[in-house]
Structure formats: C-alpha cells, structure tokens
Amino acid sequence: MRIIVSEIPQEGLEKEFELPVTLEEGGAGHTAHVKMRAVRFGTRVIVDGRAEMGVSMSCSRCLKEFPHRLETDFRDEYLPFTVATGGGEHELKADEMDTGFYADDEIDVNELIKEQLLLVVPMKRLCVSECRGLCPICGTDLNQGECGCAAEEPDPRFAKLSGLKERLKK
Ligand SMILES: [Zn+2]
Ligand SMILES: [Zn+2]
Questions:
Q1: What is the mean pLDDT of the chain?
Q2: Ligand 1 ion: Cβ-proximal residues, 5 Å cutoff
Q3: How many angstroms separate the alpha carbon of residue 128 from the centre of ligand 1?
Q4: Ligand 2 center to 141 CA (angstroms)
Q5: Cβ(169)–Cβ(161) under 8 Å?
Q6: What is the spatial distance between Cα 129 and Cα 8, in angstroms, rounded to a whole number?
Q7: Is the dihedral of CA 41, 79, 98, 53 positive or negative?
Q8: CB atoms within 10 A of CB 48
Q9: So what's the pLDDT on residue 51?
Q10: Of 33, 102, 117, 153, which is the most exposed, with the fewest CB atoms less than 10 Å away?
C-alpha cells in the first residue's frame, strides 16, 4: 500500500487492504488483512492499525500442520528522508514506535507491516499447548494414544551395563 503524503486529508486517511506476505524465504505465500489509518502532522506521518493473517504451521513436537492466526497492532512513524538525515534537525526519539522514512511524497507501508507480522510468529510452534509429541522410540503420535514403549521393561543388556557402571564406581 502506497500513501501519497500530500493527499492525506486533515481528518486522516483510512485504508483496508490485503497484503501478500511470505514468512520464510521460499515458503508459502500468505495474505494479511490490514486495516490502517494515516494521520499527518506537517511532514510527519503516523500510521496505525491492525494486521491479521491466517497461516499454517507445523507443530514443533508432533510435526502436525495446524492453523494459526498472527495478529498485530502497529503504530509507525514516518519522516521525510531529508529531515531524518538533515544534521540534527530532528532528534530520533527512543520510544516504542518504529520509524520509517519516505521520499518523494510517497510512503510504502508494506515493509514495516510485514516486519511486525514476522515479530509475532511464535518461536515455539505447538498445535496445542499440552501437545504430547511423538514417541522418541517408535514415532507414535502420543496425542492419539499410548504406544507402550515407555511401559516396557528396560532392555536386559542395558540393565547389565548399568550394573557394571555401578560396580566400577565403587
Ligand atoms: Zn503437536
Ligand atoms: Zn513408542
């Protein structure tokens, strides 16, 4: 979405649009739904809104694909490039707002919105918070039922070995 700064009306500009996003290089494309508002204060523009995107992820524990909804509220500030580099005319504030720059009266909001969606991708991707994962021995999905591996007697050869270890310790 491109915004022409000089065309932002006094009361602000509201936009609703679809934004194509790829979460990882070479990965599947997704479409984010974005609702935003741009307000202009001289040459400074504040863009805020909300982006939502439905994605499919694979569970870190059981590897199953599951749907997940990424949602983020954003509030970005845009400054003309010349002001930002104009030797201390404008002090960049270290507040919580992300700052972008624009040139030629035109703002492209897509990159900052994409970045913010990437930030809400969970590090730990679980299909359900209590996912039991796969049995490390036989690979059974333990959410579907027990496989019996854990209940089995330890291998007698290992039992002997650990007995040997015990003796070596003494
Ligand atoms: Zn899972
Ligand atoms: Zn098993």
A1: 85
A2: 59, 61-62, 127, 131
A3: 6
A4: 8
A5: no
A6: 44
A7: positive
A8: 16
A9: 97
A10: 153
